[in-house]
Write a structure and sequence with these properties.
This protein is α/β, with parallel strands linked by helices. It has 2 domains: 195 residues, 2-enoyl-CoA Hydratase, Chain A, domain 1 (Alpha-Beta Complex); 48 residues, Lyase 2-enoyl-coa Hydratase, Chain  A, domain 2. Helices cover 49% and strands 16% of the residues. It has 10 helices and 10 strands. The strands form 2 sheets. A 6-stranded mixed beta sheet has the order 1-2-3-5-7-10, sandwiched between helices. The chain has a 4-stranded mixed beta sheet with strand order 4-6-8-9. Strand 1 and strand 2 form a beta hairpin. It is globular, with a radius of gyration of 19 Å.
Amino acid sequence: MNHETLIISIKKAICTVTVNRPQSLNAINTTLFRELEEVLKALDRDKAVRVVVIQGAGERAFAAGADVKEMLDMRGDEAEVRTWRGMGVYDRMRRLSRPIVASIKGYALGGGMLLALACDIRIAAETALFGYPEIKLGLFPGTGGTVLLDRLIGPAAARGLCLTGEQIPAQRAYELGIVNRVVPEAELSRVTRETAQTLASYSPTAVAELKHILNTSLERDFESARAEEVKAYGRCVASEDGQEGIRAFIQKRPPRFRGR
């Protein structure tokens, strides 16, 4: 399938999704939301893919935010529709049963930072820049961006970023818990690939259950999240992959996971 804003490549169980709007610093527009939603729906059905990598085309940006040109003369109800559409895409990313790795160089601002936050693992080049600059435009981070950031890094850090609109370097983003790892830009591709390969070697069943529980913990109260964890753990232990992993450990051999 051809896409206007994305390049899709699948190799050895790893699907790489490249946001391909380098002329606009990979700004996120309505077409990109629609195409990314289509890709995620297809990945839901393609069990051969075990890991997804998201990156930006070019050298300057992962994604520099929303395409603000689309918002000119936009009515409030139209803005709400756009926001719900975007939130649906980010929710679908979090609920995809496979892990998603963000490979970040250059700008990851506004909607671009939110796109990264919707991924499970975030690896950033030392030169990457993060932030929510919307307040400088008389706006604030929508599409669930404020709520998610608050829950991921805490209210004090989230308020500081949202209210000041400042851009922070990758190392500061790491300290705040926005990214998992910071590497020299020249090593970003290699580290991303190695991380994806490691994740792809794990049991798809266990990974899917783990993602489900991590989402549950983020979204529910303590008691209901813990109860759901117990059920998921039971399913995982009883699965073919779970029993294969236990047998392989006892027999001192590498496990052969089949996603069952």
